[in-house]
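Exercise 7. Given the encoded structure of a 211-residue chain, write a plausible sequence.
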């Protein structure tokens, strides 16, 4: 099998790890299927807003019908093995850790206020968020990961968490996309609980920072 796995820059980084283990190419894109769907050799693409492309040759866009058919096919295969979709998700978590994501949307009455809030963050990014040191700050407007410039900021924390702050392209909102990765040792449930707690702490901290 050859081809490309892809997702938008604000989506989880889990797909990149899965693609690497499978020996497949991976590509990050700007937000929207106008970028994802155009990638040559696309096998699977998705974005944080829950759109999936599983048959780019047939439909080079997010398409719930083909995605549902693939899920039903997987359910049938797993049922014959005495397994479920939840078993597969648990397997992924045990292999790669618990990937937990969330989005925070802040609505503004004026677009200029969104620009002002983002400019303040770019000019003076925090050194610590939710008690965790910020390791790296990247201005999306400089162009990162081989992508074109776009307004926003990406922050990597010392514990592996990631925060991306960018203005919405369709609404008067400033959005924060949050990701934490919690390793799994023996107790998957406990790891999930810790991931949720870390995510909640990030959500509170970034909300306080932007308001």
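Solution.
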């Amino acid at each position: 099998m050859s081809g490309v796995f892809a997702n938008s820059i604000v989506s989880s980084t889990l797909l990149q790890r899965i693609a690497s283990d499978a020996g497949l190419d991976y590509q990050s894109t700007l937000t929207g299927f106008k970028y994802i769907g155009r990638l040559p050799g696309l096998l699977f693409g998705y974005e944080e807003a829950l759109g999936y492309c599983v048959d780019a040759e047939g439909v080079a866009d997010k398409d719930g019908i083909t995605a549902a058919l693939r899920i039903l096919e997987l359910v049938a295969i797993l049922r014959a093995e005495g397994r479920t979709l939840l078993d597969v998700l648990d397997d992924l978590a045990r292999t790669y850790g618990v990937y937990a994501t969330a989005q925070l949307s802040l609505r503004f009455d004026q677009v200029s206020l969104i620009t002002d809030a983002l400019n303040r963050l770019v000019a003076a990014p925090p050194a610590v968020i939710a008690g965790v040191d910020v390791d790296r700050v990247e201005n999306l407007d400089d162009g990162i990961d081989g992508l074109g410039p776009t307004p926003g900021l990406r922050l990597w924390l010392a514990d592996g968490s990631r925060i991306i702050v960018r203005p919405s392209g369709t609404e008067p909102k400033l959005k924060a996309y949050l990701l934490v990765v919690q390793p799994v040792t023996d107790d998957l449930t406990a790891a999930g609980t810790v991931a949720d707690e870390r995510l909640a702490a990030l959500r509170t901290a970034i909300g306080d920072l932007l308001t």
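Remark. Strands lie at 4-8, 25-29, 42-47, 51-53, 98-107, 128-129, 132-139, 153-157, 162-167, 173-182. Students should compare their own answers with the one above.
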